[in-house]
Design goal:
This protein is mostly beta strands and about 70 residues long. It is about 10% helix and about 30% strand. The mean pLDDT is about 95.
Length: about 70
């Protein structure tokens, strides 16, 4: 079972997050089928609490049905 990338979190991930340093963007996508060691798989709580670095933007590319309201 995959778990959230945050240390000491045992919850299942719901999204995959990538960081685009050149564009200063945090990109949120639907959870990828396989874990990628270069990306972050985050649970719902950590996704909702995530804040980008100062000067960065967040791009949410999740399918509409998977975005929490």
């Amino acid at each position: 079972m995959r778990t959230c990338a945050k240390m000491r979190c045992g919850h299942e991930p719901v999204v995959t997050v990538s960081l685009s340093y050149g564009e200063r963007q945090v990109v949120i996508e639907d959870l990828r089928p396989e874990r990628d060691p270069n990306l972050l798989d985050l649970c719902r709580e950590h996704t909702e609490r995530m804040t980008p670095p100062v000067g960065w933007t967040v791009r949410d590319h999740r399918a509409p049905s998977s975005v929490a309201v």
